[in-house]
Design a protein that fits this description.
six-stranded parallel sheet, 2 domains, Rossmann fold, binds NADP nicotinamide-adenine-dinucleotide phosphate, about 25% strand, 15 strands, seven-stranded mixed sheet, globular, Quinone Oxidoreductase, Chain A, domain 1
Length: about 325
Amino acid sequence: MKVIELAAPRVDALHSCTYPDPVPGPAEVLVRLRAASLNFLDIAVATGKYPLNNFPIIPVTDGAGEIAAIGAAVTDWTVGERVIPHFIPNWQDGRMPTAGGGPRRGIDLPGSLAEYVVVPAHSLVHTPAHLSHAEAATLPIAATTAWRAVRTAGLGPHKTALVLGTGGVSLFAMQFARAHGARVLVTSSSDEKLERARKLGADEIINYKFTPKWADAVLRLTDGRGADLVLETGGAATFPQSIEAAGLDSTVFIIGFLSGTEVSINVVPVMERRIRLQGNNTGPVADFADAAAAMTAHGIKPVLDATFPMDQAQAAYRHLAEGGHFGKIAISIP
Ligand SMILES: NC(=O)c1ccc[n+]([C@@H]2O[C@H](COP(=O)([O-])OP(=O)(O)OC[C@H]3O[C@@H](n4cnc5c(N)ncnc54)[C@H](OP(=O)(O)O)[C@@H]3O)[C@@H](O)[C@H]2O)c1
């Protein structure tokens, strides 16, 4: 099969080669991949920011396709079904089995830049009927994480979500928050991206470059109450203001460190406003399946910024690393 291999932790070490076709074991499924999608994690792996010593690897955590063959013990899936393998295949539900959740696709297991992959049958989720393979490939990490943020915060009518930036997780969180009846505030460094977010349903938009004290804007736009969910993607540069922008009994859902990991915060407002600081590391197959079901029920489509052909994988990685994207970046697999 044709594969894009990552030979070393450098984007220019992505190269085309041929591997033997994998064969499914009794409880496994062979998936003919049709698309992959990038996350910040894939950039970290391909730039040495994520410590790995198992190169060469088949990279990219997220992908989608259709079942090409099933193992002898698989009874609940059939050849031809459109599927999305989860990125942590053995985290089924509930608590994480280990600190990292177990082996992950595109890191310690074969990833999505390949024509075929073998995965455990229990790691599959049905592709929502209204989504293309490229759209479906964007779901595992970003939609699962966004879904958990919205559910953990208990969003609903009369509640407000604040999502930082217009990356993949933030836009999914905006869509899920709206589907729960909540109001959504979006920040971005770009007015053009903010206008796009407004067209997608953002109720209020804040340019964090032009409004460096964006937490004050959040308080103003919520009549002083603050947000019930803050999707904290920024880390060092955003965390203190995320606390300022968080309301009474709110959740600051900590998922990223785009601007650094070390922060100093005042604990008093955390105590006084009973703010829950909730860390997260993606989620299990069950949450992914719930997120996909919600997308079907509400007709939610991922926001696809661009789709690159597989032989231009390096360009796709660079596009994400440059940060000009709005939403998700896909790679089509012929
Ligand atoms: N722990 C988890 O469960 C989990 C799961 C998924 C992702 N993550 C992490 O969450 C972060 C976001 O993931 P993603 O896939 O959505 O990333 P992404 O698609 O690359 O989006 C990143 C966006 O964040 C915004 N941003 C960058 N620096 C910022 C800053 N200082 N303040 C506010 N916004 C800033 C930018 O939006 P604008 O261009 O609009 O300014 C940028 O486009 C990454 O760090 C990723 O590793 C964690």
